[in-house]
From TrEMBL:
A UniProt-annotated Pfam family: HTH_31
Protein name: Helix-turn-helix transcriptional regulator
Organism expressing this protein natively: Nocardiopsis tropica
Taxonomic lineage of the native organism: Bacteria, Bacillati, Actinomycetota, Actinomycetes, Streptosporangiales
Domain spans labelled HTH cro/C1-type: 19-91
InterPro entries: Cro/C1-type_HTH, Lambda_DNA-bd_dom_sf, MLTR_LBD
Length: 284
């Protein structure tokens, strides 16, 4: 972790002490398959019981819970997490309080989109909105996004669509100038998950069918997601210009929500009225 002041380190270790004590107090021996062993002055597991469950020394665990300045390893923190039955957020909190960088997300979780998030994307109509996962697969997009940006029923990944859908490419006014930034942003996203082989498969498959993508990927450029302007020449509505805002979903940091607002002074908002017959939002 980044360097910290002595006062900050003491505060962190104090919080670690309280956190471990409260997690231990909420468990009973029966919860973890141990015999109760007579009456207890305080509720919960004893320190020595947690040490046994985690496979660490009693003295070492006592020092950890007392907030002493000792070295801890990822393996030991994982063992303590298991012994105390910590959930995902609690495990990350333990790492942070112990002064160790929390582990990366080991892999993608189930892609179940909450009704609230779907409702938000639907309510953004008649403006475009979409939700994508870490691989840039389209999870949800509203009817306006489909109509305005040229997504068809066979489009399931916005990176693949960007490079392989001729209709999409023809509609996007600044396609050639934007393409390097798109690839650079995808490379930055892929680098966050070095153990996820799905990124490599996607890159290999797309490189095979798109020389443009293969050439840009070979540059090894890296870039951030930034607030951008997206210009579209729609065959029915004409010139449409949007301010694009990219947001991370709080409880799914590998998901990205993209919201588009008509750019003031471009006439885009009025032209969207021509597309009022756009289909309802559906999952990609």
């Amino acid at each position: 972790m980044a360097s910290e002041t002595p006062a900050a380190a003491r505060t962190r270790r104090d919080q670690l002490r309280d956190f471990l004590r409260t997690r231990r107090a909420r468990l009973t021996p029966e919860d973890v398959g141990m015999a109760a062993g007579g009456r207890r002055r305080t509720p919960g597991l004893r320190r020595e019981e947690v040490a046994v469950l985690a496979g660490v020394g009693v003295s070492w665990y006592t020092w950890l819970e007392q907030g002493r300045d000792i070295n801890v390893s990822v393996e030991v923190l994982d063992a303590i997490s298991g012994a105390l039955r910590l959930n995902g957020p609690e495990r990350i909190h333990l790492y942070t309080l112990a002064g160790v960088n929390p582990p990366r997300d080991g892999g993608p979780r189930a892609t179940s989109v909450t009704p609230e998030l779907r409702n938000l994307i639907e309510a953004w109509m008649p403006r475009p909105a979409m939700l994508r996962d870490r691989y840039w697969n389209l999870l949800v997009l509203n009817g306006t996004a489909r109509t305005v940006f040229g997504y068809g029923d066979t489009d399931h990944n916005c990176l693949v669509t960007f490079f392989t859908n001729a209709r999409y490419r023809a509609m996007h006014v600044h396609w050639a100038s934007v393409a390097p930034d798109v690839v650079a942003a995808f490379r930055a996203d892929a680098a966050r998950f070095p153990d996820d082989t799905e990124f490599g498969r996607l890159v290999d498959d797309l490189s095979t069918v798109s020389p443009d993508f293969a050439e840009l990927w070979a540059r090894h450029d890296v870039g951030d997601h930034v607030q951008t302007v997206k210009a579209v020449l729609h065959p029915e509505a004409g010139d449409l210009v949007f301010d694009k805002t990219t947001l991370t979903v709080a409880d799914r940091p590998d998901w990205t929500l993209e919201l588009y607002n008509p750019r003031p002074g471009t006439g885009t908002e009025g032209r969207l009225a021509l597309l009022a017959h756009a289909p309802a939002a559906t999952s990609a």
